[in-house]
Design a protein that fits this description.
Blueprint (H helix, E strand, L loop, with lengths): L1 E2 L9 E2 L7 H13 L2 E2 L2 E3 L4 E2 L9 E2 L2 E2 L1 E2 L1 H6 L4 E4 L10 E4 L23 H9 L7 H47 L4 H25 L1
Parallel strand pairs: 4-9
Antiparallel strand pairs: 1-7, 2-6, 3-8, 5-6, 9-10
Helix pairs in contact: 3-4, 4-5
């Protein structure tokens, strides 16, 4: 799967040249000879766009996930989803093998930016001053567990606002790009996409600083 940089037919393009090309013929011949076909997909259809305005706008289905008969037999309920491109010009592809696969537990992570929280020093001091009976290593482990809960309730809650704001902007950007998939030359939607992209990058940079 990925960017094949060519379409299968003229129905997979909006704007630009609508002529059949030798490259398209080669691609079709290649898929026939290798017995490959598109995996069942949903989401964005035009997976690439030059993000231009008006008549200069071109959108194409350049990305795809291809499978052979053996794959279809081994993974009969597999499918792929083309997500909104967000800040890229290509749509990300997610292939799901089994829709019933449970999510794995995400372990606790400490973010360096938490050390800048106003309550960080006092929280660490309070936990480390707590008396715990047992060996030195047992005391350290128990205090770390206690501190983890304190950090979750204080620092994580306060810093999570950036994540929620970023997620809200992402949802707006996704919705805008879903609409653009149907009306690629809409000038107002293109302007909205640029505005939301700028805001997304601003919040993403803040989030990156937090994670560092």
């Amino acid at each position: 799967m990925g960017d094949f940089n060519v379409i299968l037919n003229i129905r997979e393009t909006h704007g630009g040249s609508m002529r059949w090309s030798n490259v398209m013929s080669d691609f079709n011949d290649c898929l026939q000879e290798t017995e490959l076909e598109d995996l069942k997909f949903n989401g964005i259809f035009f997976s690439w766009s030059n993000k231009s305005m008006g008549n200069a706008c071109i959108a194409k289905k350049l990305d795809r996930a291809l499978v052979n008969p053996r794959w279809t037999k081994e993974f009969p309920i597999s499918e792929c989803t083309f997500l909104p491109p967000n800040i890229s010009d290509h749509s990300p592809i997610i292939v799901t093998l089994d829709l019933s696969t449970p999510r794995r537990h995400v372990p606790f992570r400490f973010f360096n930016a938490w050390s800048t929280h106003p309550k960080f020093q006092s929280s660490v001091h309070s936990v480390w001053s707590t008396y715990i009976k047992g060996t030195t290593m047992f005391q350290v482990v128990q205090k770390l567990k206690m501190l983890k809960q304190v950090l979750r309730s204080n620092c994580k809650k306060d810093f999570s606002e950036v994540d929620s704001e970023l997620q809200a902007v992402k949802l707006e950007l996704d919705s805008c790009q879903m609409d653009l998939d149907n009306t690629s030359s809409d000038h107002s939607l293109r302007l909205m996409e640029k505005t939301l992209t700028t805001e997304f990058l601003r919040l993403a940079n803040i989030q990156e600083d937090i994670m560092k």
